[in-house]
Amino acid sequence: MDSSQSTTTNPSDINLTDPQYYLSRELTWLEFNDRVLHEAMDERTPLIERLKFMGIFSSNLDEFFMVRIAAIKQQIEAKVTQRTPDGRTPAEQLAVASDRIQQLITEQHQHFETVLRPAMLQQGIFLLDYFDLNQEQCNYLQSYFEEQIFPVLTPLAVDPGHPFPYISNLSLNLAVVIKHPDTGEELFARVKVPQVLPRFIKLSTTLQVIDSQKQSKSHNTNALQIDRECPQIWTGIPLEQLIAHNLESLFPGMNIQGCYTFRVTRDADISVAEDEAEDLLQAIEDGLQKRRKGGSAVRIEVDSAMPNQIRQMLQEELEVTDRDVYEVNGMLGLGDVMSFLALPIPELKDVPWNGIVPATLRRRKTTEDGGNFFSLIAQKDILVHHPYQSFPETVERFITCAANDPKVLAIKMTLYRTTRDSLILKALINAAENGKQVSVLIELKARFDEQNNINLARQLEQAGVHVVYGLVGLKTHTKVVLVVRREDEKIRRYVHIGTGNYNAKTSTLYTDVGLFSCRPELGADLTDLFNYLTGYSQQRSYRKLLVSPVNTRELFERLIQQEIDHCQAGKTGRIAIKINSLVDPKMIVNLYRASQAGVSIDLIVRGMCCLRPGVPGVSENIRVISIIGRFLEHSRIYYFQNGGDAAVLIGSADWMTRNLDRRVEVITPIEDPEISKDLQEILGIMLSDNRQAWDMQSDGSYIQRLPQTGTQEESTQQILMDMAVGG
């Protein structure tokens, strides 16, 4: 939209569904990943953490190709021409996304090679190239190769008698060009870099002075200008380089002409015809087998030195276009640099953080005091905020207490992502063995966790737990626990409603909030919800909860409309929302309408945001920020001023069409005034952030906030850690 448009334009004259008011979902996700990459480039971030973000950027991009790009390519193959809300066809979406990805990849590898690798060297982490090594090190690696690597390798020739081999998803490979010494014929072979071996081979000898001749051959000459007295914490080279310099062992008697790395990404989404599947578990397992075999290739990453004829041959064999080939000047598969997190260098990492036990729960923490835990919840609703507050000492303790408490009759919960060694899993099995009624809904369709969830389901079933796999056509994404307890001949229901998975490992990495309560209406609502999930209930109304796909969209629209009504009545309207993604066009229209009515709107959206803030006549009252830090912002908090009687809610749903219409989600209102104020304070801290916050511009770009001269740095996550310790 032309920025010169007058703000006096009649709102009714503006078509809020016009594509100019929407950003591409794919491009907004790529901008999120760019912000992740920036953390790897930010000198304020400790070095090892910068490597972590470099790895996260790569892993994120892998999944983006396996899911989003794969889906777009399927649409193109099916000749879908329907335009997305931003006005692009699938082919146009792919084109703009591919261009942006190439820019990001170039930026990533250039920074890694020219900035991070030298910085690693200066700190004693010597990630070298083979040409950087002295003779002693080469001799050691020669022996290591022969003993540890050579037996694992399988060279595969490609000729009329040897068809082009299957290239597995995310595998790193060497394309080897060989010349026959007698005939002069050039041949091609593929060598897979084994994923069962460490990506980086550690040297047992120390780095010595590198002479100028070797330095001139090195791919990393700038990095080698270091203090020779620098203490070596780790020294090694990439595995593929060691293999490449020992190819004569794999092809004896042949002349090695060239060797070039490449990496393939395949479609990894699982499509299950649920309506036709008699056994959903079996259908998911069948889909997993297809994924392991691999879908069609959606990306090839190639060494920039690879000759065009080799590149063309790979394209033809893998059936990809020029647009699917991404040239890399540097080391492929940078997700593997995450392995350096294991190095014992605390001074190059974030200060370790262990969640605090909330003050309300600090008294008597043993698992035998279940009655005490429940009595605390009975006295007052309790808010927990992870990772600032301990997940094991709150959520896991709640479920463990329920499993051991003789007064507890039943436990019901949903599991979306968890771990096989989870204490929650053990508690549920223990509860079933104690004779309690235990029902668990395990979502088999949780992407990339399908096999783990199948294994968990079978383990629970064997222990006598009632396991259900969700609803046909709907993914169950909600995070809820219901505990039924007999107290003084009465039944009381205790609930936990959260924003994050019941996963102790991710609870230390993701920010999430959860509510413990025994409010009767919440307990009754969750009882109805579980009957809906496990039986044939067609529950269409709830007392307090917002439940997708039943009433979430309707009730959020009503809350937005109330703010509009207040403004139109001459009062003020205010909305502040923290979510992971804002994509749903109808919700965006509602926010645009609210902005036009004068409602002040602040959106804290970590990832995709298809809304354009600050557009005259449409969204000038909307501000959007994204917060990127050491923890992944995952909590969802919703605030509506509501004429002074604030409506604050938390839950599992983002504002994407799938969360509102095609998933089972739960949002709970917060009725305790103190908890409501605590959540509003969290939102206020985030909106004041000048360290981790990025301001979204109306064109979809972001500008990172920086402290003004003379002002103190305000980091949301650091403030919340300090508050947890002080509280």
Verbal overview:
The protein is α/β, with parallel strands linked by helices. It has 4 domains: 73 residues, Methane Monooxygenase Hydroxylase, Chain G, domain 1 (Up-down Bundle); 196 residues, Polyphosphate kinase middle domain (polyphosphate kinase like), CATH 3.30.1840; 186 residues, Endonuclease Chain A (Endonuclease, Chain A, 2-Layer Sandwich), CATH 3.30.870; 180 residues, 2-Layer Sandwich (Endonuclease, Chain A), CATH 3.30.870. 36% of the residues lie in helices and 20% in strands. The protein has 19 helices and 27 strands. The strands form 4 sheets. Strands 14, 18, 19, 20, 21, 23, 24, 25, 26 and 27 form a 10-stranded mixed sheet that branches. Strands 10, 11, 12, 13, 15, 16, 17 and 22 form an 8-stranded mixed sheet that branches. It has a 6-stranded mixed sheet with strand order 2-4-3-7-8-9, sandwiched between helices. Strand 11, helix 12 and strand 12 form a beta-alpha-beta unit. Helix 1 packs antiparallel against helix 2, helix 1 packs parallel to helix 3 and helix 15 runs parallel beside helix 16. The longest helix is centred in the N-terminal third of the chain and has 33 residues. The chain is globular and about 90 Å long. The N terminus is likely disordered.
